[in-house]
Amino acid sequence: MNNLARVVEFITEDKEWNIPLLSSFLPWDICLKISKIFLPKKDVDDEVFWALSPDGNYSVKSGAQLLINQKIGLNPSVEYLWLWKANLSPKIKKFLWKACNDGLPTKARLEQVHVFTPQQCEFCGCSLETASHLFFQCRFTIDILHQLEADYGWPQIPSSAILGSFRANLQCCVDALGIPKTCQLAVVWWFVWFTRNKVIFSQEAFNVRQICILVHKFLAEWHVCGDNTARIQTRSDPQLLGLNSLSRRCAPWVPPPEGVFKVNFDGSKYSDGRTSFGFVIRNHAGEALLTGCNSLPSDWSITQAEAFGLWEAIKGACFCNLPRIIIEGEDLETPLGY
Ligand SMILES: [Zn+2]
After folding, report:
1. Does 231 fall in a domain?
2. Do 255 and 284 form a contact (C-beta atoms < 8 A)?
3. What are 293-300's contacts with CB under 8 Å, separation 24+?
4. What is the number of structural domains in the chain?
5. Over the stretch 30-47, which tens digit does the pLDDT of each residue have?
6. Quick one: CA dihedral 162, 140, 194, 198, positive or negative?
7. For the chain, how big is the Rg over CA atoms in Å?
8. pTM for this structure?
9. How confident is the model at residue 95 (pLDDT cuts 50, 70, 90)?
């Protein structure tokens, strides 16, 4: 038999596969698969038939199922089927899908395609903004999750999901927390991305507490109304009005009038659980009269840390006998006299 043998030459007169002949050319496992191919007893014209659909016609669904079964996607380590079935807003599903496929235009990703911008993270100033940093390591994201844990008992990023790529870290979350809790984290990640874009493109930013309010309201609307009405309404939200100004990183410090002193305070929580506070009291020339900072118990929330920072700052102002002060925190700007 020559090298241009045709299929028909391997079919007997009884319309059966000639297995002995096949096996002289092909491995036995291939012969076995060929032997399972149905041969009609009567001569019929050949036609194209898509075997994965009952009617023989190709469908996108059956094609996608083939890809999933064969795991020939770009990132076979992540099982994506759960993502599309998850109880998430479609835009968050698409966002996750993009992040998994390295498709978010982070600064690190942009540089790979020769779009050069400053590489620092907009939130913490880290030297390289990657998806893994933004969503798993950035202090801003960690603070949001800690606040959501304190307010609503939300899950935290497992310790196993720190060092890998976004894809690998996402899989760590699914393995350690399960899909529903990973979906909660995904909502936060989407809001972090939303906020990051606001900072870059609109010079508009939100602090940790504002993001928590947005996340909570968005999820409440999503569960009640679905995606069509669950929109981000930052400008008309009464809980955010007056707070929707530039964040602490973007807002310049404004000195108080002469004879008045300004108290700035803050609380923070780190990824390893440490909590701390700090404050500074300055005069109209920006000169610091008194500063203070210290660590706090690790089970304290950011709110408790900020409240303690304010308390210590007021005690400091009393100690210095300051006649009039303005208190300015992340969410608070109140002139006080005493
Ligand atoms: Zn960062």
Report:
1. no
2. yes
3. 296/267, 298/273, 298/274, 299/273, 300/269, 300/275
4. 3
5. 888 888 787 777 777 777
6. negative
7. 30
8. 0.50
9. very high
Residue 99, H or E segment: helix 90-100
Within 13 Å, how many C-alpha atoms sit on residue 33's CB side?
A: 4
| Ligand 1 centroid distance, CA of 63 (Å) | 40
Decide if 124 is inside a domain: yes
Distance between Cα 156 and ligand 1 center (Å): 17
Distance CA 234, CA 252 (A): 22
Q: Give the separation between CA 201 and CA 68, rounded to whole angstroms.
A: 37
CA of 110 to the centre of ligand 1 (A): 17
Where is the domain boundary, 210, 225, 240?
225
Residue in the block written with tokens 């903004």: 129
CA atoms of 35 and 269, how far apart (whole Å): 66
Instruction: Please give the backbone phi and psi of residue 60, each rounded to the nearest 5 degrees, phi first.
Output: -60, -40
Distance 141 CA to ligand 1 centre (A): 8
